[in-house]
Design brief:
7 strands; 23% strand; single chain; 152 residues; alpha+beta
Length: 152
């Protein structure tokens, strides 16, 4: 299935239809290694379709594993991606995984609350949180002598 399919399939008749579609979208997103070819469609989906479905469909369990209150999430790569993690160590791994081929990515951090998270997924031991990031809150970690830290 393509992301465009989900964007076009939003006329739901029952709560179960919404749960089914949310599960399909989550499973499809989780199975993708790189979403960049469909970035525009995923952006539409995450900014419009998914929030509407989450409002109309009970989904408390989708955030199980996410702390209450404000907490910090991390991302290795670019700051505008949807997949972040609760683990700084995992974000560093993502930032450094292409280092052997000469690509140098950064690690980012952002404070969030549970309500900002679309869903949490730990099926691949990544402590992944999926959300549309508020870029005004993102800070880049600095790297010095093998240590990553929040810089000014």
């Amino acid at each position: 299935m393509t992301v465009d399919y989900y964007c076009d399939t939003c006329e739901l008749e029952t709560e179960d239809d919404g749960k089914c579609l949310l599960t399909e979208v989550r499973d499809e997103y989780t199975s993708e290694e790189f979403i960049h070819p469909d970035l525009k469609s995923w952006t539409i989906l995450f900014k419009t379709v998914i929030p509407r479905l989450l409002e109309e469909t009970p989904h408390d369990s989708w955030r199980d594993g996410v702390p209450d209150g404000e907490f910090v999430i991390y991302r290795g790569g670019s700051p505008d991606g949807f997949s972040w993690t609760l683990s700084q160590k995992r974000a560093i791994w993502f930032a450094e995984r292409f280092k052997p081929i000469g690509r140098h990515d950064f690690v980012y951090t952002m404070p969030v609350t549970k309500e900002e998270i679309l869903w949490y997924n730990d099926s691949r031991n990544e402590q992944e949180v999926v959300l549309v990031p508020d870029l005004s809150k993102v800070k880049r970690l600095k790297h010095y002598a093998g240590i990553w830290y929040v810089g000014d």
